[in-house]
Structures are given as C-alpha cells and as structure tokens.
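Re: [ENG-882] Designed sequences occasionally contain unexpected residues at chain ends

Forwarding the minimal case from QA. Structure tokens:
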C-alpha cells in the first residue's frame, strides 16, 4: 500500500491588513492545485480566527514575549524604534510540527497571503526533499552582492512568500530566534527576509535552496533581472506563483503605486484568486 505524502500548508495573519478572505482564498487555491495523490491539511496562525473557513486548522499565536503581535504590533517602539522587524510572527511557522494541535509531520509549505497560485503545485511540493527551499528575489539586481557593494543593495535577496521544508528541517531557525531574538530584531529591522538572506542563506549557514526563476514572479516587480524579464502588471501563465510585493523600495518611483490583489482587474488572475 502506497502512503500519500502529507502536505501541510501554513500561513499567518495578524492585525487588519489582510482580512479572512485572503486566508480562505489561499486555502482554496492550494487545495485546487494539489493533486489527489497528496494528503492535504491547511493551518493558519492568527490573533483573530473570525471569518475563517471551518476546514482551516487555527493555531493561536503562542504567547511568547516580543514574538506574539500583542507585545509590539502598533506600538511606538514598533513604529519608530530600531527593534521593529514587522513580520517576526512568521518565525512561528518553523516550529509548526510542535505548535499545531495534531503535531503534524511531512511536507510543510508556507505561503504569504499576497500570493496567487496559478498552476499545479507538485513541482514546489516535491522540489529538493533533502533541503529547505524558498523563493529568491530573482527580480533584484544581483550586482551589489556579487561586487560586494552592499550599501547599494535594496531589499532582500530571498523572498518569504513561499517556503518549503520537511518535518523538523527548519527547527534550527525557530531555536535561533528564541535564543537571539533581541539581536535579530535589532539587526534585521526591515523584516525576516533579510534575516534569512544573511543568517541562513549562502553567505551564512547555507540552509536554504532556492526555487528556479520560472516558478514564480512578482506582479509589481517582474520575474528575472538576469533574463531581462521585468515588465510589471502582466500575467505570466507558465509560472506557478504570482506574488504581490506592495511595499515601495527606496529606489522605486513613489508615484507609480503598486497593485494589490483586491485591486486586480486582470480576468485571468482573478479567476485563480476566487
């Protein structure tokens, strides 16, 4: 008898930026695009489960000081202080095999809520079972890194919109956060993507492998700098994921604006995000 691979989809939601429909639609997209050969579960870390579908397993954020949003989100220290690191609750997901009520095992796939799933997820589910894997910001200019002109680098070179691992492969990240969070929040003030780039990327512990550039693109930044595929606001039907980076980087035109999922007019993307 062949046992189906268990696939645990995970997301997180806190505050009011994303309503419950973002979680419900993400769950529906994940289920639609996962073949029957996989045993699918869906989890959401949140501080407010109101409006979430019944087939979503809710994980209340563990009450751990300075990681649970209630200790810092919306405070003066968060808004103006150095130790903000706005997406620190996302680090909980790397200990889901212990935090979730059913203590799941198997394959874990974390998605940000600003993701649209366009195609069969099998290539992502089965990509490099031996190492944790995440998206790389292929749309970023790599020259500041390759020439070691780090002050010219804007934004992170990894992207946390999709992160995949098996069993406890990423528990080391959670343990590091617990042990060193004050230093981490102070150092990586702009978000955990920079933490993963420098601490756990190829310039640090070399934990992460990266999905190839054809698998995902940014609706607001393009797909690949090296392949000169940076047109924005277009649907790329051959990619699996479309992510919506809506934060403006320092070098970007502030007047241009960025499209959010709720502002989409493209009928093909809207059909996926239903």
């Amino acid at each position: 008898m062949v046992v189906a691979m268990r696939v645990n989809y995970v997301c997180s939601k806190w505050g009011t930026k994303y309503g419950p429909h973002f979680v419900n639609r993400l769950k529906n997209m994940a289920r639609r695009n996962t073949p029957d050969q996989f045993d699918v579960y869906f989890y959401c870390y949140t501080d407010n489960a109101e409006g979430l579908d019944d087939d979503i397993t809710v994980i209340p954020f563990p009450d751990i000081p300075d990681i649970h949003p209630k200790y810092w989100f919306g405070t003066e220290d968060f808004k103006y202080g150095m130790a903000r690191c706005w997406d620190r609750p996302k680090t909980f997901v790397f200990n889901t095999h212990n935090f979730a009520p059913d203590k799941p095992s198997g394959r874990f796939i974390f998605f940000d809520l600003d993701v649209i799933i366009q195609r069969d997820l099998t290539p992502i589910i089965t990509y490099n079972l031996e190492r944790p894997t995440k998206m790389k910001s292929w749309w970023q200019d790599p020259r500041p890194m390759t020439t070691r002109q780090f002050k010219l680098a804007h934004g992170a070179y990894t992207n946390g919109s999709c992160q995949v691992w098996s069993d406890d492969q990423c528990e080391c990240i959670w343990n590091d956060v617990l042990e060193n969070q004050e230093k981490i929040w102070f150092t990586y003030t702009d978000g955990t993507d920079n933490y993963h780039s420098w601490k756990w990327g190829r310039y640090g512990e070399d934990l992460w492998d990266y999905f190839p550039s054809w698998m995902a693109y940014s609706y607001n930044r393009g797909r690949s700098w090296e392949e000169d595929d940076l047109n924005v606001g277009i649907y790329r039907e051959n990619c699996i994921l479309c992510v919506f980076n809506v934060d403006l980087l320092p070098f970007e035109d502030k007047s241009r604006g960025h499209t959010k999922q709720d502002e989409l007019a493209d009928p093909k993307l809207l059909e996926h995000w239903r």
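QA comment: On inspection the terminal residues look reasonable. The first strand starts at residue 5 and ends at 13. Proposing we downgrade this to a documentation issue.
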